[in-house]
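Practice problem 4.
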């Protein structure tokens, strides 16, 4: 009888751990977006955020200059709320063809539930837009 009681406790405890590990809220949620414009390419990876959360704890944006055309490339984060979209500041890569810039960041809670998140990637000549693209996760 003692052995049965010990096995039962171990079995129940194991089942609880498996149950907790398998719930969606415990899983690491990852979302990605990518787009390319003439001369530029960009990507976004978010971790720990899902639709309608109030903040994004971890995100990585990468912008790459894909053309030796003398233009520079930029990327910025777009955060969509229920009735508005925030266009955050641009991050630049001026180092020429084949180079990239990586930006690690986050979005603090406080602006409301985040309905969607995306990137805008652009190629510029000075302050003039040459091409751009937008992609949402």
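Answer key:
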């Amino acid at each position: 009888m003692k052995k049965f009681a010990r096995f039962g406790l171990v079995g129940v405890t194991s089942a609880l751990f498996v149950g907790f590990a398998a719930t969606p809220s415990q899983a690491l949620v990852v979302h990605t977006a990518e787009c390319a414009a003439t001369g530029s390419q960009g990507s976004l990876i978010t971790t720990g955020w899902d639709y309608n959360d109030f903040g994004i704890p971890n995100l990585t944006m990468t912008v790459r200059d894909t053309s030796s055309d003398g233009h520079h490339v930029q990327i910025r984060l777009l955060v969509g709320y229920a009735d508005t979209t925030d266009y955050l500041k641009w991050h630049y890569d001026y180092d020429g063809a084949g180079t990239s810039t990586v930006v690690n960041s986050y979005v603090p809670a406080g602006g409301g539930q985040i309905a969607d998140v995306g990137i805008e990637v652009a190629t510029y000549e000075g302050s003039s837009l040459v091409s751009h693209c937008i992609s949402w996760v």
